[in-house]
Every structure is written in structure tokens, then in C-alpha cells.
Design a protein that fits this description.
The protein is of the alpha/beta class. The protein folds into two domains: 213 residues, Rossmann fold, CATH 3.40.50.300; 61 residues, Alpha-Beta Plaits (2-Layer Sandwich). It is built from nine helices and 14 strands. The protein has a six-stranded mixed sheet, sandwiched between helices. Strands 2-1-4-5 form a four-stranded antiparallel sheet, covered by helices on one side. Strands 12-13-11-14 form a four-stranded antiparallel sheet, covered by helices on one side. The protein is globular. The mean pLDDT is 90.
Length: 300
């Protein structure tokens, strides 16, 4: 069963077509990635899902019912453009956001203090928001998004501005919520995060959906002629080789696509014959970054 069905969404602002006939389904219990470059139409799509923007055409169905203003109370939403009241104290801010969703009392206070302890901010609960670093303000915004224990969580660029340790903590909390059966959608232009965390994706480019579905199935489909290679040596001998379709060099890892699937073993033999020290050779493996470049490369 699908938790969310996005059907044929269109949205224009004047002469700009921000979203053009976007449709995808989000399964129950999924960690779903809405991915694409900045300005691709991800945030506009999210705002239509939340009924903040009314679509010019199309509709959004949540568990069998068309979304309306009441849907917002079932959602925890972290917007891309963060908004906290700078003069409010940290704990008061978190409790205020809970009250906006109709939640208050001892349980909210307990949950707020547990989150603050987990984010190592217990000693700042009486500080004003304006006295926190941007990274700590981001953490308070994230806590405020989850404080009412929503069943549906939408996070727009959640990792922006966070250091690696707090990024890891955010990732753990997102996955914990998914394991509890909550639906998580996060939008990002960072393909590596989406690849590590998501089981389903929708890829948007220039306002249009260019790919959607199970990430595992998508990678299998695109990886049939691809090799992920980690090596030492000089690969220049592969340039112009008739079996090679494309080489994508990412420094530590290189993606190589052969023209036919049965040429992968020939590629391995070529590497060995040319004294390449092969550290890792993953046949039929491709990164989400490579897939995106392949589909949207002409627009990059």
C-alpha cells in the first residue's frame, strides 16, 4: 500500500514552470528521497504535498484521502529555509512547536529534554536561540520537527550546515523513525546521502520527473554494463578502447561502462595485462550520482 500518491502535479509562477507533471508513490514505512539539483523543483513539490502551495493541476493522496489543511498536523516538516524565533529560549521553542501541533504536557517536556541530551544541548535549554551557533539552531529546528511524534516526516535538505558527527546523529534518528513504521521523505541534492539512506527515490530535473521507484531496482537496471573500480596505476590506455563506452573518475573510485555486458571480463583482463593494481572491482555496480549524470547530463 502507498502512504502517499503524488499525481500529475503542475505548478507555475508567472512564466516559470516550476513543476511539470510530476507523479510518484511513497510506500508505507519508506525512507524516500526526493533528489535533484538546487532549483530542480523539489521544494515546490514538497509545498504542494503539504498544501502550502495549491497545484495548478494534479492532486496528492495520503492514505486514500486527498490532502487538506488537517494533513499538516500529521506531518513533521523541516523547511529548507529555517525559521526560529531568535529571542525565544531553546526549551520554550521546542514546546511551542509541539503546541502548534496540539501537543503539550509532561510527555512533551520529557521528550524535549531527551532530545536535547542526545544532541548535547541540555546545558543550553535556557539559552536564547540567537545565542546558539547556526549548527545548534539547525539541531533545535530538527527537534522541533519531530517533537510531536509525527507519523509522516518531510525534511528539506536536512543535512545542510551540519558537521559530520551531527550529520551521523541526524541520520540515525531518521532511520530509527523509519524502523518504527513512520514515513520519511527527505529532499537533497547530495546523491551519496540519498544512496546510503533511501529505499525509494524520485529524481527531478528542471521541474520534471526523470526517474522514480525502488533504488535497488533502479541501480540494477542501470548497472548492467557498469564497473566500480578502485585501483592504483594509469588508466589512460583505456581511452579510445573499443569496448569502453564511458569513464567517470571520482578520485578514489572510478566508474567504467563497457558497451556490452559480456565485455566486463575483458575489461578485467585489460586491467591486469596493463599492470593495474586492482583493489576493488565491483561488476554491475553504479552510483546514484552516475545515474543522475547519465539522465540529466545534457543539462549540467
Amino acid at each position: 500500500m502507498h502512504a502517499l500518491e503524488v499525481k500529475n502535479l503542475f505548478k507555475s509562477f508567472g512564466d516559470i514552470n516550476a513543476v511539470k507533471d510530476v507523479s510518484f508513490n511513497v510506500p508505507e514505512g519508506a525512507v524516500f528521497g526526493l533528489i535533484g539539483r538546487n532549483g530542480a523543483g523539489k521544494t515546490t513539490t514538497i509545498r504542494m504535498i503539504l498544501n502550502i502551495y495549491l497545484p495548478d493541476k494534479g492532486e496528492v493522496i495520503f492514505r486514500g484521502n486527498k490532502v487538506d489543511s488537517a494533513f499538516k498536523d500529521q506531518v513533521g516538516y523541516l523547511p529548507e529555509e529555517r525559521g526560529l524565533y531568535k529571542k525565544m529560549k531553546v526549551l520554550d521553542t521546542i514546546k511551542f512547536f509541539a503546541e502548534l501541533k496540539g501537543k503539550s504536557g509532561k510527555e512533551i517536556n520529557k521528550r524535549a529534554n531527551e532530545y536535547l541530551e542526545r544532541f548535547e544541548l541540555s546545558d543550553r535549554k535556557d539559552s536564547k536561540i540567537e545565542d546558539l551557533s547556526k549548527g545548534n539552531q539547525q539541531k533545535i529546528q530538527f527537534i522541533s520537527t519531530l517533537i510531536h511524534d509525527p507519523d509522516f516526516i518531510i525534511l528539506d535538505e536536512p543535512f545542510a550546515g551540519l558537521d559530520p558527527i551531527n550529520t551521523e546523529l541526524l541520520k540515525d534518528i531518521i532511520l530509527e523513525n523509519s524502523k518504527k513504521g513512520k514515513v520519511v521523505i527527505f529532499s537533497t541534492h547530495l546523491m551519496d546521502f540519498a544512496e546510503k539512506m533511501c529505499d525509494h527515490i524520485a529524481m527531478i530535473n528542471n521541474g520534471e520527473l526523470i526517474l522514480s521507484g525502488s533504488l535497488k531496482e533502479i541501480k540494477t537496471r542501470f548497472a548492467q554494463k557498469n564497473v566500480s573500480l578502485n585501483y592504483e596505476g594509469d588508466l589512460s590506455f583505456l581511452n579510445g578502447n573499443p569496448i569502453i563506452e564511458k569513464i567517470s573518475d571520482f578520485g578514489n573510485t572510478t566508474g567504467i561502462r563497457v558497451k556490452e555486458a559480456d565485455q566486463i571480463q575483458k575489461l578485467l583482463k585489460l586491467l591486469i595485462d596493463n599492470s593495474i593494481n586492482v583493489k576493488k572491482f565491483d561488476a554491475n555496480d553504479i552510483s546514484l550520482h552516475d545515474i543522475f549524470v547519465e539522465l540529466a547530463g545534457s543539462d549540467l
